[in-house]
Amino acid sequence: MTRGDITTAADPTRLLEEAFREAIVAVLGDDYRHVDPIIRCSQNPAFGDYQANSAMSLAKHAGLKPRALAQQIAEAVAKNLRGVAETPEVAGPGFINIRLKAEALGKMLEALDTPQLGVHRDPNPHTIAIDLCGVNIAKQMHVGHLRSTIIGDCLARTFERIGRTVHRENHLGDWGLTIAMVLWSLTRSGDDLDTLGLEDLDKAYRHAQAECRQDEAAAAEAKATLIKLQQGDTETRRTWHKIIDVTMRAVYESFDLLNVKLGPNDNRPESFYRDRLKDVVEAFRVSGIAQEDQGALIVRFPDRDRPLILQKSDGGYLYATTDLAAVRRRVQELKASRVIYIVDARQRDHFRDVFDAARRIGWDRLDDGSRAELVHVPFGSVLGTDRKPLKTRSGENLPLRLLLTEAIQRATAEVRRRAENPSAPTHGLDDEALDAIGKAVGIGAVKYADLSSDLVRDYLFDLDRMVSFDGNTGPYLQYAHARVCSIFARAGVTPTDPAIKSAKLVITEPAERSLGLLLLRYPSVVAEVAATLEPHRLCTYLYDLANAYNTFYESCPVLKADRQQLRLSRLRLCNLLSRVLADGLDLLGIQTPGRM
Ligand code: ARG
Fold it and tell me: Which of 132, 136, 143, 317 gets mutated to test ligand 1 (max ligand atoms within 8 A of its CB)?
């Protein structure tokens, strides 16, 4: 991008940064080439579109008066920005306000109007690995796994959108004593394994757990089953495969309902690592990082009391041992420069230990010697409206399916109710079509509620609020998108009409300007989500965008615009907006029905 080349600069912040950096060098000299000009979007349109806020700290550093320095920078930058912005103005203690010229804003929006929507490809060639879902075999998928799946899917989509290769790693809990207990319980009960459902497995699991806790003989038998499983005993393996099939069938149904990009190819269960555990332990032993402690092999950390246990005194491996094997594979075999674990906040200590141990032994090193980033993205619990963790009446974790079907039912009822109105765009659609919309809205509601607040905070599962078409909700955003689509339906034109696609974008009204400025931020918001791993930033942005659109829609006639050129320009702006909304919602994993 060359200076002032506004046709390639969809994101004005970058252009302004460059222009200001040069102005700062012109005023203060080359030593200041690397300062951050601190370009921010203005909160109040009265102060222009952007602010450059670095003059105050620069003045302090250079021993100058802030306003006087700001004035000098403003004059220098004015030359760089001719054609793009009005003459910058100094305000307050030394802020520099910038207002884009309407013509330039229009051109920048035209530059944004490409299939990529201005989203930059990340030049980093390394892969990203995302550890998500992680359901446990023989148990129902519960809300914790729901969160991990939704958040992980959103981050995976975001990284793919910026051009990174993503491995979705479903670290299923299918190995170890817990599974052995279920196997033992099932073999003993003599139930017909071919007619088993997930509920039966869940029950077997709970029985076995209670029994092994009370009865030593039972615990010993479960352990013997584990050894049989580990040694590959045919019958035990056969049953094991069966319970995996039963569980996964239900899990895939949930994936399908959730519309997440996750399937059998992403399964990298704990059992996948079983033949690597011995090596893990050996590597730690040989390197001297692990030490014997009462027959067990442990890694100690100077800053914490609890050690990480690699191998128990009876020779058994642990959850952490498997996770170390997984880190090693993800960095060294998959070549991931970032390994992101979307797991409940309660496992924070576990990941801290695993990551530190992996770093000590050097398993976070990529081929080029750089270190991969190992990150745990912790999330909070899901609470019922009584602010207690969501449970069934009998105190069990609420099965996921129940929750999703209820969200879909509520949303479908609302969609149907609205369709009764003769002027609704959905009026007259058949049941199948309405149900499909209801499903998209119900799932969209759950996902948006999950993603739109700070992930570590517990969140309230309040279906009434979540499925509402008003407020900061998924359905509200889906509805805003559908409304834009309906403009085209009413006008009887398609957005791909050459007259619209090539229309010059003219920005006249303040509401049009606000909307345009917000649209230009889209690429940097996507980059921000990838950098911070905080999907709520995208949610807030899309919500602001939908609100800006509503204001625009109220004050700027589109189909009734008084000039044909303005009508085409506004139709093009509407189309651009609908695509940004749809693209952003797609990153959140939320579908956008054309009618609602
Ligand atoms: N199965 C685990 C659980 O339900 C989650 C797995 C998380 N991923 C990992 N690599 N440990 O708690």
Answer: 136
